[in-house]
Design goal:
globular; Endonuclease III, domain 1; mainly alpha; 9 helices; single chain
């Protein structure tokens, strides 16, 4: 496919991008510098899983623009810190207009921190990172068109199942796959996109 095909958008800088990566400046920066690049570290993985859960039913641009407020509210997604959140913290979060004030999602994030902390306590630092990356599928060619990008895969279904088994919530197969895209477990930039193909793992 030509990098200037109808599936890509070429910016004023001459770079071809996935269509969504050109719609706003926030999306362009996220597309160019983050999405699809490998993410490692327990807290970093926890952050991506949490933000994808908050995104459920909303536009990702809403979450992206609120990300600084989310990081401040959730102590930069430090697993031990969030795992220690109490009822006062829960009410503080629900009163914070800078984030998405959804009680079920706030409760799930705190519960997920506790599940992640239990995993790290059991298996050591890096355990959440290793668990999530163990579900990375074999490398494949980039999709040709947006219609070729799946909403779920067998790997995302298996990851969601394992996370739920370990006590995580708001991590269905679709949310799990979106997290896999965001963290570079899969590369769903379109063929011809200028975003570099990041190395796996």
């Amino acid at each position: 496919m030509s990098p200037r095909s109808s599936h890509l958008v070429v910016g004023d800088d001459g770079l071809a991008r996935c269509p969504w990566g050109f719609s706003t400046d926030d999306y362009r920066r996220y597309h160019d510098t983050e999405w699809g690049r490998p993410v490692h570290g327990d807290d970093e993985i926890f952050e991506r899983l949490s933000l994808e859960a908050f995104q459920s039913g909303l536009s990702w641009i809403t979450i992206l623009r609120k990300r600084p407020a989310f990081r401040a509210a959730f102590t930069r997604f430090s697993i031990p810190s969030v795992a220690d959140f109490d009822d006062a913290d829960r009410e503080r979060l629900l009163a914070d207009a800078g984030i998405v004030r959804n009680r079920a999602k706030v409760d799930a994030t705190i519960a997920n921190a506790r599940a992640a902390q239990a995993l790290v306590t059991e298996q050591g630092a890096g355990a959440l990172d290793a668990l999530v990356w163990s579900f990375a599928p074999p490398a494949r060619r980039r999709p040709r068109a947006p219609s070729d990008v799946p909403a779920t895969t067998p790997e995302s279904t298996a990851l969601a199942r394992e996370l739920k088994r370990r006590g995580f919530a708001f991590v269905g197969p679709t949310t799990a796959y979106a997290a896999m895209q965001a963290m570079g477990l899969v590369d769903d930039h379109l063929q011809g996109c200028s975003a570099p193909e990041a190395g796996r793992g």
